[in-house]
Structure formats: structure tokens, C-alpha cells
């Protein structure tokens, strides 16, 4: 993707890890490459929905790079979600 092409976003997901070696910690299994819409604050994001042990997360914040081609999304795990 060219730097001046803003038709597609690369979305990276992270979860807080206070006091850990890496804070926040990346969740590469959830990353979305070349999408046109990124989840907004309050949206739910799910791990593998085909698994009985899937984890639900809620979007806490979004962070855009200065060129607007990448989005970092901070998630928090949730116990109850509308689809689990």
C-alpha cells in the first residue's frame, strides 16, 4: 500500500498489560489488514468465534498514525457480550 493511499487501513489490536514487560501487548491473531472500516470505541471484537472458548473484547480507544494508514486499537476483555 502506498503511503498516500488511504483507501485501506491496517488495524492492529492491543490489550493493556500493566506492570508487564510489554504494555500494551499485541494480539496478532485479531489484526485486520487492508480494511475500509475500523471498529469504534464501544464495539465488541471477538477471537475465534467458532471456538467454545472464544474471548470477547471491547474497544477502549483508537490511535491513528500521522499518515492515517494504520490504526492501533486498545481492547479490554469482557465477561458478558451480546453474542456470547
Shape field: globular
The separation of the N and C termini measures: 35 Å
In DSSP terms, counting alpha (H) and pi (I) runs of 4 or more, how many helices? 0
- Helix vs. strand class: mainly beta
Order of helices and strands: EEEEEE
Radius of gyration (CA) equals 14 Å
Mean pLDDT metric: 85
Query: Low-confidence segments, ≥5 residues, pLDDT <50?
Result: none
Q: What's the story with the biggest beta sheet?
A: 6 strands, mixed
Instruction: Quote the beta fraction.
Output: 35-45%
Portion in helices: under 10%
Could you give the count of β-strands? 6
Structure, described:
The chain is mainly β and 84 residues long. 0% of the residues lie in helices and 40% in strands. Strands 1, 2, 3, 4, 5 and 6 form a six-stranded mixed beta sheet that branches. β5 and β6 form a beta hairpin. It is globular, with a radius of gyration of 14 Å. The N and C termini lie far apart (35 Å). 8% of the residues are buried. The model has no long low-confidence stretch (mean pLDDT 85).
